[in-house]
Amino acid sequence: xxxxxxxxxxxxxxxxxxxxxxxxxxxxxxxxxxxxxxxxxxxxxxxxxxxxxxxxxxxxxxxxxxxxxxxxxxxxxxxxxxxxxxxxxxxxxxxxxxxxxxxxxxxxxxxxxxxxxxxxxxxxxxxxxxxxxxxxxxxxxxxxxxxxxxxxxxxxxxxxxxxxxxxxxxxxxxxxxxxxxxxxxxxxxxxxxxxxxxxxxxxxxxxxxxxxxxxxxxxxxxxxxxxxxxxxxxx
Length: 235
Known about the structure:
By secondary structure, the protein is an alpha/beta fold. The protein has helices spanning 41-48, 71-78, 96-106, 111-124, 140-152, 170-185, 197-201, 226-231, and strands at 2-10, 16-25, 30-34, 56-61, 64-65, 81-84, 158-162, 189-193, 206-211, 214-218. Strand 9 and strand 10 (214-218) form a beta hairpin.
């Protein structure tokens, strides 16, 4: 689905922040992206959601080499990608329902279809009783689930999440990971950027590890039983 071949990125005339990055994300896979602060995770995430272009190398997404594509040609590629940002980026003047519905309204979907889809998804993420609430009246875990619902309402093939559990306690964090795993089982390819070592050790997913702009791929060890003890059930 996604392939990077010797990709490099620099800002202006400075040194490369990403060097010879090579990896592939297969359809339906689940990866963690990790590494120390300043390793280049934010830069790689911006390339993945097409926020910027590389300075060298080849990126293939959904079977298409995107290097020479215009902004207009990139639009249908972007529409296959959902992004959960670390700071949520919810609109506080809109209700939880309207935040989730926003991508569908922008794409011009009929209002009846929007209502049915959004209501179903909000019940699925456990927020069926909070549709009319404003984001700033909700907990961090609830806001994160709104952000996830908004990211997946268009049924993206690829979901990117930047530190989705970074500001949450462990119990809520593990419940959100359970939600990501449910999405993955439904066919969504998922990549999560995280510093949370305990979280990564508790789930059996491949790691993309960045260090000083260079990337290596590491297969996980057998996950610990802690995950099942904490999750308990659906979020």
